[in-house]
From TrEMBL, chain A:
Tree of life domain: Bacteria
Organism the protein comes from: Sutcliffiella horikoshii
InterPro entries named in the record: DmmA-like_C
The name this protein goes by in its record: Dimethylamine monooxygenase subunit DmmA-like C-terminal domain-containing protein
A Pfam cross-reference name: DmmA-like_C
Classification of source organism: Bacteria, Bacillati, Bacillota, Bacilli, Bacillales
Residues in Dimethylamine monooxygenase subunit DmmA-like C-terminal domain copies: 106-152
TrEMBL record, chain B:
Organism of derivation: Sutcliffiella horikoshii
Xref: Gene3D superfamilies: 3.10.20.30, Nucleotide-binding domain of ferredoxin-NADP reductase (FNR) module, Translation factors
Protein name per Swiss-Prot or TrEMBL: Oxidoreductase
Domain FAD-binding FR-type span(s) in chain numbering: 4-109
InterPro entries: 2Fe-2S_ferredoxin-like_sf, 2Fe-2S_ferredoxin-type, 2Fe2S_fd_BS, Benzoxazolinone_Detox_Enz, Beta-grasp_dom_sf, Cbr1-like_FAD-bd_dom, DmmA-like_N, FAD-bd_FR_type
CDD domains: fer2, PDR_like
Pfam family, one: DmmA-like_N
Cofactor(s) annotated in UniProt: FMN
Cited SUPFAM superfamilies: 2Fe-2S ferredoxin-like, Ferredoxin reductase-like, C-terminal NADP-linked domain, Riboflavin synthase domain-like
Entry annotated with the keyword Flavoprotein: yes
Amino acid sequence: MNDIKNGPIFQPGKKHYVLCGDEEGLNTLNPIKQILTNEQMSFEEIHLILECSSEVDRKLEMQKIGTFLYVAAERKKLRKVLSMATKLGYSPEEAQYIIVGKEEKRIFCCRCHVISSVCGESIKRGILNCPACSLKLELSDHYSSIKDAYLGYVAEVK
Amino acid sequence: MKLDNRLQVEINEIVQETATIKRFTLVQTNKSALPAFSPGSHIILFLNGRGGELERRYSLVGDPDRRGNYQIAVKLHEKSSGGSSYLHNKAQIGDILQISFPKNYFPLSFQARHHVFIAAGIGITPFLSMMRECKEQGASFELHYSTKTIDDCAFHSYLKKEYPQHTQFYFTKQENRINTTILLDQYIGTHVYLCGPAGFTSSFSRAAAIIGYPNASIHYEYFSTPTMFKPRSFILELTNGSFLTVPAEKSTLDVLLEAGYPVPHSCKVGHCGTCELSILEGEAEHNDSFLSTKQKESQACFLPCVSRSKTKTLKVDYSYK
């Protein structure tokens, strides 16, 4: 997910802030919460674990122009919130998405179109075999928001 | 009839909408259907003026589904340099005119959750087709329309009939002045569209940015080159070794075209980016609404249709033959 950052960056000058995340995600957002508390700025928290998804959607929907949204959560939860926020019209200037937990990337096989997941060392190496067709794939930086996956190029021409 | 990428049309009807606004219906001289257009589109009208050919841009106010004619609404400007004065005082039914194919630099956003249209005076024109589209698509929208008095308010009865729940009128001489508070309290996902005099558009655009609207959610339309504060003359140096003087009263693009250097161009108001040229030396004074703030700061390129030079000489990469 190209929009996703490794850590939150404070965006000053907004009218209201929304901190949204799972337990680990909200911990990641603590430095932001600290700044907002110290500066006595308006903010609210959305707990992805404690609140049902329709309530989360409703809270995102009711935000006014001038609000800044931070979302920090593990990949699947983050993807769900990002998708809803995008549908509601949140632009990259109005939100930051932070992934927490184990780094994982989805890779789209250019030959058989099966999407598989890679994590840890495989991401660093950038090379893996497609589990469906065994083609050796190179992880590209070409991300598809529709597939939520990176394109895997042919790594070896025999 | 297609003529040098132009269409030849005939004035079919003229309707006096207000004391200073006339609506013209144009049909092709060969009576065939006109090219389709999207909401927010405009055409360029090519008119013969004292100093040569004049180009004037007018929004298409008619129904995009009715391909038999185009409709434009024209305000008579007090300081008309020929365009509106000709159309108001000389143009008659049956006159033949040349127009461009429709162009759209003011489209509706596909991502908006809610559209807020803000018009002053003749700035209402692009919103007529845009609101028609919103209503057809069931999209959420509102219109804020400011004129001096109700008599100056073109399409007043039409708007009251078609969009009674969506339209708010403001008549400045009746102490009902439009202000930027209408931008407050809108939900995220709202896009704002501005059309009117340059001062009106820029004050609403500034207010929207301060409130927190992302740049991509603020849309505006200029029909003439944005007003610049005392433009100065400068020397334009080309990579082929030529030097051209750009006088204060002419655009950089016009100087290049007049000197026989073809530069691809389209909108001529700093909106489309077609005429972009790379800067090799010097700094440009950017007056366009196309390049991002970062691109402007980098001084790597500029748009000669509206932008000029901060330095005495501006060297550009001119590679067209």
